[in-house]
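Handout, page 2. Input:
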Amino acid sequence: MSNIIEITDFTVPELDVYARLSEAQLAHYYEPAPGIFIAESPKVIGRALNAGYEPVSMLVEKKQIDGEARDLIARVGDIPVYTAEFDVLTQLTGFQLTRGILCAMKRKRHSTVVDLCKNARRIAILENVMNPTNVGAIFRSAAALGMDAVLLTPASSDPLYRRASRVSMGTVFQIPWTYLGAKGDEDSAWPFQGISLLKELGFKTVAMALCDDSVSIDHPDLLAEDKLAIILGTEGDGLAACTISDCDYTVKIPMAHDVDSLNVAAASAVAFWELGR
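Output:
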């Protein structure tokens, strides 16, 4: 049975992970081993547990102890479960908890790109997508619309950041992902080595970009490809010119009413739906 602890002192070090450490600091909490992340809401925490992530502690609104948190508390073993009224938790964390539940969990080591992609047919690549809301929305679409894995450049927002994992509805724990050029996997550094490696693995690379020399997203040659890597660029600037020039295809989504572009998360859903079939 978990240890239910009512919060009476905001300053105890056990609450630092919720109150005083940034998400970047949490990511390096056990360095050189993987660090910690914060999962928010019952669905997200449940999917993280299903994926084998190890809980460290929980922060739960008092009324949820016998409510929506009850089943989760039964699953997490003998870890500390800190509790207080909703207003106290908001004061502690600085934000309103979604459904009144947070869980600190240990990260896992990243897979290599080769290991992640060896059995994949459709993968998504996020080049410097820095908004965690967009990253979370892209993961949700990737999981729902047939992507086998997601690769991110180091400048992209961390999929395990609280907002990203919450917006994804926990799908960041369901679809495999890793970073390009991560430590120990320098052969996948983006863009040159990474694109070369993808081609060695049999992928045709698809740059989603607003270029005049592009093909339509429903082009028959695209749909006939056995393995596709769909590359999406940063908000505003899009993909780097060198990335576009190195790709096998440049693809544009047809637009109406003089709309020139879609938000990267919206564009990802269209691309995954059309190319993930």
